[in-house]
Amino acid sequence: MCGFDKRKGPRRLMKKGITLIFVGHINLLLGAIVHGSILRHISKPNAKITTEYSAANIISVTSGLLSIATGIIAVLVSKNLYLWKMHVSLLVSSFLNALLSTACCVGLLLAISLTIDGNGRSLMVNCNSTDHPISPHSSFMTDCPFDTTRIYDTTLALWFPSTLLAAVEAGLSIWCFIVGLTLRGLGPCLPTYLREQLEEEAMAIRMGADPDVFPHPLIEPQSVH
Asked: What Gene Ontology cellular component terms go with this record (predicted)?
């Protein structure tokens, strides 16, 4: 689990970082489309804010932004394996993004379940001008600022890929977090030869030597006084 090859690892980390940036942008775009085309009509300042709005807009957009930031940090770490501050940044950002992306995925699944179970009635909460519960497929005439016949299908069509992307973000963030643990030798990834090697190469760079030819002696056992 804590394996990280010093030569191939940085390239893999860079690919994961670029993927996180791409996925984060797509998820951010989907969240903006959902808000701009649908949710802004059903969530007004003086009206009831639906569960779907909170889950699909706020959490999804924030998760996309943090995924982009985590991807950028991962790319920077792949180019600066010797900087421990970058390792810490990767650990913190990937951990927070894994939590937020997981919460986003769970929230979207909950929103989808509530919407399907209620046949889209929660999306029409601000259009209920009668005592009858109105659904997107209702035959009642409604005074709504949007097309009620398409809001149900459009919302679900955008939420399903957002849920999948949130799951991908969580998986990539967990992988980056494990890489950060490996580079720092923390938690289940206890101090390894990789960390010793990186520290020696960082010392070689500070001393002006070539890190590729810098000797890597075996770790000698410390004497107990």
From this structure: membrane
